[in-house]
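Can't attach files on this board, so I'm pasting raw text. These are the components:
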Amino acid sequence: AQTVTQSQPEMSVQEAETVTLSCTYDTSESDYYLFWYKQPPSRQMILVIRQEAYKQQNATENRFSVNFQKAAKSFSLKISDSQLGDAAMYFCAYRIISGTYKYIFGTGTRLKVLA
Amino acid sequence: NAGVMQNPRHLVRRRGQEARLRCSPMKGHSHVYWYRQLPEEGLKFMVYLQKENIIDESGMPKERFSAEFPKEGPSILRIQQVVRGDSAAYFCASSPRRTSTDTQYFGPGTRLTVL
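---
Top answer:
Structure tokens for the assembled complex are below.
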């Protein structure tokens, strides 16, 4: 069975600094997708970034980038130039590439941004 | 282009009552997923539906929970005889097709409180 692990329940970062959130997963599949979602206090799930497992190049979206290590089954999120609006829960998610495509989520990391 | 709509946003029920949660997918989307988020946890898959069909209900509790997605109208998640342990945020996500490349788009969630 696939699992997603986020070992950091909470992280803090100073405004304008860089922070990295960790995520590891376990799967026997070779093709899959990985996602980072942001959940602010409003509880809306907002897609931050997505990575296809068959792509070796790490995905980047403005200040957000990932470090995808397929052999190590690691998928960390780096947030550069942190802003107060980045404060939220961040969830790592895995989606199988066959079957019903349901997401499997980690337990989340709460990010605090200090002014 | 409206996103995924869920209503109500907040629902309060007493133990033993029924809860009905509605989800209107994005325009053009015919696939709906329901997830549950217990306090301080990640989202857990419940059920995947296409119009008039349940495709995967492996995450649904065996009793009291049911879901439908009729040909016309929103998808409904129904919880009968609610108990305190049903208190959670329930999220709906939609996608246009059942393919591996489609991202799921989440609604704002319904927070159910059982007194």
